[in-house]
Amino acid sequence: MPRAVDGAKRKNRRKKILKLAKGYWGRRHSNFKTAKDAVTKSLSYAYRDRRDRKGDFRRIWIVRINAACRAEGISYSRFINGLNKAGVVINRKALASLAVEDAAAFKVIAEKAKVALGVL
Question: Which of 37, 46, 55, 59 has a CA positioned 20 to 30 A from the CA of residue 95?
Answer without folding.
Answer: 46
